[in-house]
Amino acid sequence: MRTTGLAERLIQLFFLLLSIAMVLPFILVVCISITEEQSLLQNGYRFIPESLSLDAYRYVFESPVVLMRAYGVTITVTLVGTAIGLLMTAMTAYVISRRDFRYNRSATFYIFFTMLFSGGIVSFYILMTQFLQLRDTLWALILPGLLTPWNVMVMKGFLSKIPLEIVESAKMDGAREVRIFFTMILPLATPALATIGLLISFTYWNEWFNSMLFIDSDNKVPLQLMLVRIMNTIEFLSANAEFTASLDINQSEFPSLSMRMAMAVLAAGPMLCIFPFFQRYFVRGLTIGSLKG
């Protein structure tokens, strides 16, 4: 009994230290974002700012319309993509999880195979721009993330544990497949749906590469791509002192270091607020839906 108690305390201590190690970097990022630029240059990064300043956030919010528009694009893509992607993932996983489906093994292998190999970025770009004609549309940001093999396999692992007898009894009562799926299977799979939905929403929220490839219009630029462009602009100005001097820009007054961290806070903040509401489903969904065979 004493050995078991000591082992539990060691495990709890390990996860406590692991949690602290994960939280501390984000706290440091927040502290840097509200530290005066001169203090950062003189003292480096500190958890307790020597002098506070909100200049970084003031520069970011100088154009609130652009920022709000980027937030709107990102929120729209995340909501629409998560809703459609979650439905498609659940439908695909349900089909290959049914033992009475003749081709469930071959279909599962086909989905698993795409986890190992892909068509490459060139074929992906040609497909999106030449065949689907999705360049400079929000569907170019939504469509690529609708169905992820990893999410399908996790969802399949969860749905495989639902007894087939439930489906058979519903059929004997006259229910069709569509009604069984929406009124019986989906309510039973709530933890897995919450988990996969959160994973899909994180993917859409953090996505910026596809928007860099396909988006040209300024009013369709998502938040992450806007932040990447701001970061590149800051790096360009920092590396070209003569150019900034010709524009009468004083680099010492420009909060380049704290502004990077302020943008990281603005990008990650909304998802950090949402995550605690899904945490209990997240742990349960990943545990029950772990891969098996």
UniProtKB/TrEMBL annotation:
Membrane topology summary: Multi-pass membrane protein
Subcellular location: Cell membrane
One of the record's GO cellular component terms: plasma membrane
Main location: membrane
Coiled-coil residues: none
Bilayer-crossing regions: 12-35, 70-96, 108-132, 138-159, 180-205, 257-278
GO BP field: transmembrane transport
Keyword line: Cell membrane, Membrane, Transmembrane, Transmembrane helix, Transport
Keyword Heme: no
Pfam families attached to this UniProt entry: BPD_transp_1 (PF00528)
Domain ABC transmembrane type-1, residue spans: 71-278
Family label: Belongs to the binding-protein-dependent transport system permease family.
Name recorded for this polypeptide: Sugar ABC transporter permease
Native source organism of the sequence: Xylanibacillus composti
